[in-house]
Design brief:
Layout: E1 8-19, E2 24-28, E3 32-39, E4 41-46, E5 51-56, E6 59-63, E7 68-73, E8 77-87, E9 96-97, H1 104-120, H2 126-137, H3 152-165, H4 173-180, H5 184-195, H6 199-217, H7 222-228, H8 234-245, H9 249-256
Antiparallel strand pairs: 1-8, 2-7, 3-6, 3-8, 4-5, 4-7, 6-9
Helix pairs in contact: 1-2, 3-4, 4-5, 6-9, 7-8
Keywords: DNA-binding, Transcription, Transcription regulation
Domain HTH araC/xylS-type: 165-255
GO molecular function, one term: DNA-binding transcription factor activity
Length: 260
């Protein structure tokens, strides 16, 4: 989706609250729709693609032109923004793209800046707004567009990406399965068939990998890290970490930062 600012046409950029009495769609836009959830949880489905997403703030989806979609909040309410834009040579739908792993929080900051500039609506800032939009698009996984992600592997990738961004909510495999709208047993079977590995082991590796990142890059306590990656107790994380990594979390933190 390479383009320059001259090929972009900015349209609506709005922010607001949605609730159970105000469903999203069904709708099919002739332009791009960058839908972003700032607070709460929203379910989005794509009937043509037989795909469903659960977006847990901060997260969103870039919906291609000509893609049918509909949705609703999963709680009492959610706050969200939409950014509509058109671009020369834009791919036809159906299709959508998700944020790159671990970049959702940074994208949210860019989107807030984009909304700030949109509210000011100064003609001299139009080139800046377009450059900002191109930076936002760099934060989405556009490699598969306009492929239709209906294969099990594509559905798993979407679900695991969402799970990795929201590990604190993924207490069990059932929570991951809910992102796909299937049962835990169906997720286990789908994962083993597509990847020939255990879904439970994959979730455990996501937790431990994120734990490694937090141990190295922060001074958070083990209890705080355990909660952020979905473990109920620090002791549970410590036991899993030592078994899989051969070190205690404290030893790993010291080993990773010899100058501490």
């Amino acid at each position: 989706m390479a383009c320059d600012t001259d090929q972009l046409e900015l349209r609506d950029h709005r922010f607001g609250r949605i609730n159970r009495r105000m469903p999203i769609g069904p709708v099919q836009w002739p332009f791009h729709d960058l839908f972003w959830v700032h607070e709460g949880r929203v379910a989005i489905s794509f009937p043509e693609l037989e795909a469903k997403l659960e977006l847990v703030a901060p997260s969103g989806v870039l919906i291609l032109p000509g893609t049918q979609f509909q949705g609703a909040t999963l709680g009492a309410f959610a706050t969200a923004s939409i950014c509509h834009f058109a671009m020369a040579g834009e791919p036809a739908g159906p299709g959508y793209a998700l944020p790159n792993p671990d970049e959702a929080l940074h994208l949210q900051n860019l989107i807030r800046l984009a909304m700030h500039l949109a509210r000011r609506n100064r003609p001299d800032e139009l080139p800046r707004r377009k450059r900002l939009l191109l930076s936002l698009l760099d934060g989405f996984d556009l490699a598969g567009i306009p492929d239709i992600p209906t294969a099990d592997e594509d559905r798993l990738t979407i679900a695991w990406t969402q799970a990795g961004q929201n590990l604190h909510r993924m207490r069990t495999l059932a929570d991951v399965a809910a992102l796909l709208g299937i049962s835990e047993s169906a997720l286990r079977a789908m994962h083993r068939k597509a990847r020939h590995t255990s879904a439970g082991e994959h979730l455990r590796e996501l937790r431990l990998t994120r734990s490694e990142e937090l141990l190295v890059s922060t001074d958070k306590s083990l209890a705080t890290i355990a909660a952020e990656v979905g473990y109920g107790h620090a002791a549970t994380l410590a036991a899993a970490f030592r078994k899989r990594r051969g070190k205690t979390p404290g030893q790993y933190r010291h080993w990773s930062n010899p100058f501490a």
